[in-house]
Amino acid sequence: MNIHYDIKEGLFHLQHEKMSYCMAVLRTGHLAHLYVGPPLKGPLQVSFFRVDQNKGLTAYPGPGEFGLSLGVERMEYPSFGTSDFREPAIALEAKTGETSLDLRYHSHEILPGKPNLSPMPSTRPHQADEGMTLEIKLFDALRGVSCYLTYTLFKGLGGIVRSARLTNESRETLNLKRLMSLNVDLMDQNWEWVQFTGDWIRERAMTKHPIRVGVQSIGSRRGASSAHQNPFLILKRPHTTEDAGEALGLSLVYSGNFLILGEGDHNGHTRIMAGIHPGDFSWELRPGDSFQTPEAVLVYSQEGLNALSQNLHRFIHQHIIHPKWHNHQRPICLNNWEATYFDFDEEKLIRLAQAGKSLGMEMLVLDDGWFGQRNNDQTSLGDWTVNLKKLPSGLKGLSEKLHDLGMQFGLWIEPEMVNLTSKFALDHPDWIIREPRREPCHARNQYVLDFSRKEVVEAIYEQLTALLDQTPVDYIKWDMNRNMTDVYSLALPPHRQGELHHRYILGVYDLYERLTQRYPHILFESCSAGGGRFDLGMLYYAPQTWTSDNTDAVERLKIQYGTSMAYPLSTMAAHVSQVPNHQTHRVTPLKLRHDVARFGVLGYELDVTLLTEKEKEDIRQEIKSYKTYRQDLLYGDFYRLVSPFDTHGHQTAWMVVAKDQSRAILGWYQVLASPNPPLSHLPLSGLDPLGLYVIDGTDQVYGGADLMALGLLIQPSYNGIHKTNDPSGDYQSRLVVLNRL
Ligand code: DGJ
């Protein structure tokens, strides 16, 4: 790992064992992007990457300049108005109405470690001196702005962490309209754009298309990163598979409005940029003010998508999630939501906890409905005081009783929201995000608090700490069940309303920061009606996320498969629920539900007091087995083998391999049977090629290399590995544990 600057060539080379990233200061002082790809050894010259080109209908920056047009070059951080006609990474407006920008290289520094971006979540070095950072200062003398581009290399990451900061060094106020975290101008257009798209209860479906000439984008203007588009993109070569070929992954450490944009230009290049969505965004930059973007993580793989994901997973474990939760054995929870919805009392909860405990569960999570008069979704958000009718001994009493039973206690909150009839909203009607003269849109009968205001965050903080100081709580599920409309803050002047979205999410981060500092022992799980805010910004505070409100095992195959492209299994909460499933009304075997949910943070979300003896025994066995393999399932290397997106959802297979390759756990799933199927072999991945593996519960021994070359013989109704008692074809699953001898 090294950051090298060749003064003679003006060439920066960021070298990592897995990739190189190169830029150059051109003769005009503009910063060009040269290369991202397999590691280059050098010596390098700028002429290897670019030559002067004179083209018709082309503008050139400055008098006398020919051959070097910003619109023809591949730029590192492009702006508009000075010969580049493509999408800019930065845009601002001076008081005079002038908008052009001409950023040229000024200086750079190479620093050990990395700067902290507080008050925003940002990647953490393990140790203070881990990583290396390059900061390049670009300057526009006329406009009086400095733009700092920051690049950090981490030892474990085959990639780069980037961000940008703009400082107004002029004597007048500027209106910042766009400042992206990252821009890369790739050399060619032979890429597929892979995005993770969906909606409530069908998050992160993998869809792809070839890069087109023109602009394509994903983004969110909902005030949250969203279930609709995840702030993560893969660019892969058309022939790239899970196990071979080039791919780039791009992820934002941000939970608010975002844009990831691609532009195929007319010179055969692909411009990719990512950052805060410029729609609805503006920022008043007074003289001396700076604006810092969130970070973007760019990873590169030459070895297919599994390697790309594993790289990101490692990175999330080491540099996003708080060290306290590294390798932490997440508790198996029993969540009362689908078991009771709003209809519970202390007695019922204790009965659930007792039954759960007897099956091996470790924590009861009390979901929505414990506060104010909340017996449905129309009331009480904002009034965070316990409902003593339902819980006569209060939260403290309930928590103590659960702890006496040997169960941890988890609590649901939704701190960013109010119902209009709550005391909180009635006392502070101006603390809601809404325009003053229009009735605001509601969603689930609730409204969004103006977290851009410090006093609002403070008031919620006070309510929550009053509660949490007195109640032993082990886990918090922080929910967020609607997106923002009527975006207007009564605390901001008209010309600064464009700051609201970003200020809001900074307020959310502030509350997270203060609560996690004050209660470092509490494990947070983020949630937004399921996976509506599954992003690296949230994972910085909350090491796991409620992956989806959809608990149907068949749907979860796709959701968890898509999610795994960016996020490790330790971040995905996955619950076994009852059938018919509450979201799809589908009836699937308990085995399938278990075999899917164990590839994640296993939990339960059903009335365990109503189970048959057989179901109880199955759950007991499953939990015992999950506990045996929990460390590998949460922190081993995850390999996707068969994609539900390639098989119309009918087949899926994946596996986890222990870090030392001593064990592997394979999950194979068939949703619908096909008649008289041919024999099929499933090649495995990630095993020790020299090792011998025995299939748990059998005396069958295979060579690791053979399992990866030939594969395991999988026959749906009788697979030669495990005889199944349920030979009917639909909804089958196999769980195979391989131990190295
Ligand atoms: C949405 C969440 O995703 C559910 O799990 C549950 O907590 C409900 N909200 C409660 O209102």
Description:
The protein is an alpha+beta fold. Helices cover 19% and strands 29% of the residues. Strands 6, 7, 8, 9, 11, 12, 14, 15, 19 and 20 form a ten-stranded antiparallel β-sheet that branches. The chain has an eight-stranded parallel beta barrel with strand order 21-22-23-26-27-28-29-30, surrounded by five helices. Strands 5, 10, 13, 16, 17 and 18 form a six-stranded antiparallel β-sheet that branches. The radius of gyration is 27 Å and the shape is globular. The protein starts with a strand and ends with a strand. The model is unreliable at 718-727 (pLDDT under 50). The chain binds (2R,3S,4R,5S)-2-(hydroxymethyl)piperidine-3,4,5-triol (DGJ). (2R,3S,4R,5S)-2-(hydroxymethyl)piperidine-3,4,5-triol binds next to loops.
Q: Sheet with the most strands?
A: 10 strands, antiparallel
Unreliable runs, pLDDT <50, ≥5 residues? 718-727
Helix coverage percent of residues?
A: 10-25%
Bound small molecules, by name, code or SMILES, are: (2R,3S,4R,5S)-2-(hydroxymethyl)piperidine-3,4,5-triol
Task: Decide which structural class fits the backbone.
Answer: alpha+beta
* Rg on CA atoms, Å: 27 Å
Residue fraction in strands:
25-35%
Instruction: For the record, give the distance between the C-alpha atoms at the N and C termini, rounded to a whole number.
Output: 36 Å
How many separate helices? Answer: 12
The gross shape turns out to be globular
